[in-house]
Write a structure and sequence with these properties.
The complex is a heterodimer.
Chain A: H1 2-33, H2 43-78, H3 85-107, E1 121-122, H4 125-155, H5 163-194, E2 200-202, H6 203-214, H7 216-236, H8 244-257, H9 274-308, H10 316-320, H11 326-349, H12 351-357, H13 361-391, H14 398-424, H15 439-442, H16 445-473, H17 504-523, H18 525-528, E3 532-534, E4 536-537
Parallel strand pairs in A: 1-4
Antiparallel strand pairs in A: 2-3
Chain B: H1 13-35, H2 48-56, H3 82-89, H4 93-99, H5 104-107, H6 126-138, H7 144-152, H8 155-167, H9 191-197, H10 209-212, H11 229-241, H12 251-258, H13 261-272
Helix pairs in contact in B: 1-2, 4-8, 6-7, 6-8, 9-13, 11-12, 11-13
The chains are: A mainly alpha, B mainly alpha.
Amino acid sequence: MERSRILSLAHLWTAFLCFLPAVGLGFWQMLMRSPLPAPVDDPNTYYASVTAHGSIMAYVFPTFFAMGFGYAIAVSALGRPLQGEKWAWVGYALSLIGTVMALVPVAAGRASVLYTFYPPLLGSSWYYLGLALVIIGSYFWIALMLVNFRAWKRENPGKPVPLAMFAITACALLWGWTALGAVSEVLFQILPVTFGWRHTIDAGLARTLFSVTLHAIVYFWLIPAYIAYYTLMPQAAGGRLYSDTMGRITFILFLVFSIPVGLHHLFMDPEHGAGFKFVQSVLTFMVALPTLLTVFTITASLEIAGRVRGGKGLFGWIRALPWHEPMVLGVGLSLLLLGPGGFGGLINMSYAMNAMIHNTSWVTAHFHLIFGGAVVIVYFAIAYELWPRLTGRPLVSKRLADIQLWLWFWGILITTVPWHIAGLMGQPRRYAIFDYSDPVVAKTAFLVILSVIGGCIVVISVLLFFYVLVRSSFAPVAESMPPIRYALSVNPPATVPALLNGFGLWNVILLALVLIAYGYPIGQFFFLHNQDAPAYSLTRGITK
Amino acid sequence: MKLENGPRLHNPWGFIVVAVVSATVVIAFGLGFLLLPRYQEPRAPFSTKDAVYHALGFHIHGKAFNTMQPPPKVPTYIAWTESTIRQATIGDRKSGEFIATNCTACHGEKGLSTQPWIPSLAGLDRLVLYKQLDDFRSGTRLSGPMSAIAQSLTSQQYADVSAYFASLPGLPENRGERTPRPHSSYRNRDPVQRLIYAGDPKRGIAACASCHGPGGYRIGAPALAKQNELYLEQQLQAFALGTRANDMDMPMRTIASALTESEIRALARAYANENANGP
């Protein structure tokens, strides 16, 4: 038991220690984009910084977090030692080496391609190899989640797999399938060029392969937060989960529908016809279902807890909830931000409305609101929940933790709301510098300054988060620390249908959907051959 | 899959799930491929076959458009395809050195020109040299002596001589590395520096450095640092007037025509006097 705690802690510390500088970079980037003076003041440094920020926030931080959280769940929810712990350390080491390999060339200015690395812009091979290694390391985790899932089912025939384990396994499977898109782009499109074997690159195929990963990766980030929604928050609130079945259906729907929808990131791209864009737009709407189910179930669970605690009337139960519990507060604030974030997403995924906001700051604001506001705030709450259990030392102050979560909530809100508006006013994304002497650009100046203020609050919140974690790590060891407890549902299931207790059929449906939705859009490049573009190597690997 | 809830016949959920997902897919395809294309004005496709073609992204209106067009003006016959890049980069330095004995009269010993209106070639990118030779041959860039010389050489000889000049020490190589260079945004008060590193979007002028360096690289765009000042100035003026028009997608004609006389002179001077840290 002790060794698996160290395993989880190592992953979570790595995740947050990467997160810290990435937040600092993000703040500086916002300053660069603003009319305020910014240190260094160099567009090329901005792009290097965005690449580091994006690569950490999109790949490194959530991957290490999901891995650490997953191991903690496998041990605590299944109540058995982690099978294959040695391999977990191998995966950890690979991902860590990959992180260093990817970030060194970025810092050297040799891989400023942004985390979406859309070719034909190309950076150093080391960057792509490093990120591939991060993903390969995480495949060890995926395998271990499946192995432990199966082992428990074998030992407990007919019993429902605990919801937390069921969900993290869905998360692992989802990541396993969806990462194949980016990995094949790197292996078959990018590396042959950066190694100098080819001089042109099929930009259309590369972008399409990346889109296989680009949307579902969001749900890979989101599912750990949803696990806290379903299994940790009702317990912390002193109530019960409204429905275990709803939780299972939610995670299954994420697994099935989040991959065959990535084309909605390419609505304005010329390499695909309108037909498949429309089909994937429809399928994208299916991904809204599990979130709607979740909002309903979690609100119901909160109401149950509120009423159990004596809350009365139409809204009295809200006041009766223990908002001083970081887990309850974190999930509550996350739900609030999930609302506007989710509706923004519905606009992005609508084929026609997308045209208005495509490639504007609206999109960047949207994913910061979803990732920062709905996901990371719950990562903090999970950390506050797990740290005492993993270290055996109590949290120094729940009050400081609550202040931190509130600061984060307001920081993200103040950063992203003006950012959305600037996007609607036509501010383009992926721009390092804006000429505020231009009257059209000048109209967004005030909004960007507001975002800078929000960013400042976010930075303070993150520093406070580290203060709480570090202080707690040096607190005296508690005499006894209760183990992680997962919420019971109102009607704890004695058995569940086989369909809701495994992933066999769902994997088949998922692959069939991917084949239907992506078969032609990817296959066309093998007979059309019309998308080859000269590789624009950042560091000019092609001629010397 | 193992059933834990009795025989399959009594558990219809697997069937229901597959049916619901299939129905969603069928409806999505029906709408996206058959129905909606018919209502896309103007010129909605008439037949089912055309609707499907349209949805797949095939151009189905080709016959109606593009009938009578003026003859195209071709800026250059070079396109950066796999085969062109290969051809331009397989040159032999030794053969190139022999060919280059014909160049010294104008471009100087070792490719460093002493006449201010003639460019230095030492250290220039191979693809840049190859493209200009091909443009002189095809007549898309005009120069009496260079056209005659280019017409007397083969593509392989272009590659050879390009390899030779590229290997000489001379103009600082534009490696395209994004090392931090403070004060290169609109906040810089020096208007020339601002043009070089940030451009002027109000006038549609992109930053010079994003293609010509330092800190940026674009295939086919020459490094300009330490190039002869008068040559740079004359080329910018030629682009502005349209008397030089061999820039693919016309970025240089667009930008140069938006620059003022004094900006052209200042930019040429800045690049010609560039030191290791940029102009």
